[in-house]
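stage 2 :: seqdesign
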């Protein structure tokens, strides 16, 4: 398994946008359901979006209609487009398979949203 490398996080004002990237292997992206997760300060890591091998996506209620998960098979990359960001979106964002493999967690990428 190729451990993913997340990138694209940063500091943004409320209402702003960011696009996160998750670079991994082509086989992982093609043949697995991928998930985006986040862990806010003092909270458990939570699943927020999934993308399966057929392209079907799902989202939790608090990110639905604001976040979009997609993939680029040729680049073996999964993306998370985040719009209309809120301070409550501040967290470290990770990607992993869904269900997640414990040994597959990367370093994550920090997203900080100011009010």
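stage 2 :: out
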């Amino acid at each position: 398994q190729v451990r993913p490398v997340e990138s694209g996080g940063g500091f943004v004002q409320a209402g702003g946008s960011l696009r996160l990237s998750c670079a991994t292997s082509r086989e992982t992206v093609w043949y697995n359901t991928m998930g985006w997760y986040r862990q806010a300060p003092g909270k458990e890591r939570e699943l927020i979006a999934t993308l399966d091998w057929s392209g079907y996506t799902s989202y939790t209620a608090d990110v639905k209609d604001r976040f979009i998960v997609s993939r680029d098979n040729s680049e073996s990359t999964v993306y998370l487009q985040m719009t209309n960001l809120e301070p409550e979106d501040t967290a470290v964002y990770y990607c992993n398979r869904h269900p997640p493999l414990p040994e597959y967690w990367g370093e994550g990428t920090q997203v900080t949203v100011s009010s």
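stage 3 :: structure notes
- The mean pLDDT is 94.
- The radius of gyration is 13 Å.
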